[in-house]
Amino acid sequence: MVVCPFCSAGNGVVLESFPIADLDALYRRLYKAPVARLFGGRDVLSLMRCVECDLRWYEPMAGGDEDFYNTLQHKPWYYVDHKHEFDLALPCIEPGSAVLEVGSGKGNFARFLQNSGRPHRYTGLDFSSQAQRMAASNGIDIRIQSIQEFADSHSDVYDVVCAFQVLEHVVEIRSFLNAVAQALKPGGLMLIAVPSEDSYISQSNNLALNLPPHHISRYTDRWFTHAATILDMELLRVEHDPLQPHHRFDYIYQLTIASIYKLMRRRRPMVDHRWMNWLARIPAFMLGKFLAQGLGPHNSPHGHTVLAVFRKPLAPTRGPIETIANNDSTNGEVSLPNGDATTTKGDSMNIEGNAQASHA
Ligand SMILES: [Zn+2]
Fold first, then answer.
1. CA-based nearest residue to 224, from 311, 333, 129
2. How much distance in Å is there from the Cα of 175 to the middle of ligand 1?
3. What is the pLDDT of residue 348?
4. Same domain, 182 and 200
5. How far is the CA of 7 from the centre of ligand 1 (A)?
6. One domain for residues 151 and 95
7. What's residue 341's pLDDT?
8. Helix boundaries (H) for 9-124
9. Contacts of 88-95 spanning 24+ positions with Cβ under 8 A
10. Which of 215, 284, 292, 340 could bond to 168 as cystine, CB 3.0-4.6 Å?
11. Is residue 29 part of a domain?
12. Does one domain contain both 191 and 180?
């Protein structure tokens, strides 16, 4: 039994497994970035799903190291100046708000807020000293600290805490979100933007940047609902971005390849170096070039980013649920703080590590 790194339920099921050697070959081919060393000598990587909260995560849960991100950060898309979730988040920032951004990078959201003309007080957290220097040159306050450390001395301080494209890089998901909640004032808003597992990217294969060690967890809309209950927060809204014009080709391309596999009644692995995948790319490329032109705002599906807005209650309704994992002393029944009980199964397993990043 594998324990969920968010809700601690012990009933993770394997959705798909693939050889780490195949993943390593994919990263070497696309980015000249070997990754096999990051998985502790393991041969196989598995995408897991928590039956309780619907979190998807990879076992072993290993993120990228400095070498890996040093390779990626030279790519032109690494520090994107504007993310669509900034637009989605803006209505949540009342004039005069104290805003904390976790994984701020060089402070693009801070500059977006400045340009919006909305007065605010901004603090960013990141692990990159290079990003901090770039932000400082623009007068933006970025601290090199984890949210867990920062929240210990900044409890109940912020009106809004946001993390854009960060949670999918984090190993300690639960302590990360607990710390975000701790830093919020009662009634404050937690804004989480992640790649959506309910978008077309969940059907994409050979999409290295949605795979470990870059992205190590995946989030459905259903998970946000469970997360609100477990964290004792109110889920106000879940909003998907529209398919961005520069993703229209990729949308058609990936769906065409998926359809070809379906027609051939073949399973489509997440990482696939077989001849069939190479062959399927030819019609997918042609159809992508042709059909993408017909997609516009009126007939596009939603894009690959989702923003969830949570509100911290003015007074705790019952406190967060610490664990819904089984242990022998409870015979599978664990009392919730409000006196309810849930029945779960499984053993516990510690997953250690920490991550906080500003990666796209
Ligand atoms: Zn879970």
1. 311
2. 14
3. 31
4. yes
5. 4
6. yes
7. 33
8. 20-31, 66-72, 84-89, 108-116
9. 88/193, 88/239, 88/241, 88/307, 89/162, 89/164, 89/191, 89/193, 89/307, 90/116, 90/118, 92/160, 92/189, 92/191, 92/309, 93/118, 93/120, 93/160, 94/159, 95/119, 95/120
10. 215
11. yes
12. yes
Residues 113 and 84 in one domain: yes
> Which pLDDT does position 74 carry in this prediction?
67
pLDDT score, position 205: 82
Domain span at 207: 12-243+302-343
- Asked if residue 38 and residue 126 are part of one domain, the reply reads yes
pLDDT score for 334: 33
pLDDT at 93: 93
State which residues of the chain have pLDDT below 50.
326-360
Domain count, the chain: 2
**Could you tell me the two tokens for 266?**
């073949």
Matching residue, tokens 């596999």: 261
Distance in angstroms (rounded) separating the CA atoms of residues 182 and 309: 16
Longest dimension (CA), the chain: 61
Q: Mention every residue, 6+ apart, whose C-beta is less than 8 A from residue 87.
A: none
Q: Which residues have CB less than 5 Å away from ligand 1 (the ion)?
A: 4, 6-7, 9, 50, 52-53, 55
Are 253 and 165 contained in the same domain?
Answer: no
44-50 and 234-242 beta bridge pairing: unpaired
CB 128 within 8 A of CB 355: no
- pLDDT for the residue numbered 76: 61
- Quote the CA–CA distance of 269 and 354 in Å, as a whole number: 29
Task: Tell how far the Cα of 195 is from the centroid of ligand 1, in angstroms.
Answer: 18
Ligand 1 midpoint to CA 221 (Å): 14
Same domain, 162 and 215: yes
CA of 305 to the centre of ligand 1 (A): 21
pLDDT at 358: 44
| d(CA 102, ligand 1 centre) in Å | 23
Residue range 23-34, pLDDT digits in tens:
999 999 998 999
Tell me, in angstroms, the distance from the centre of ligand 1 to residue 194's CA: 17
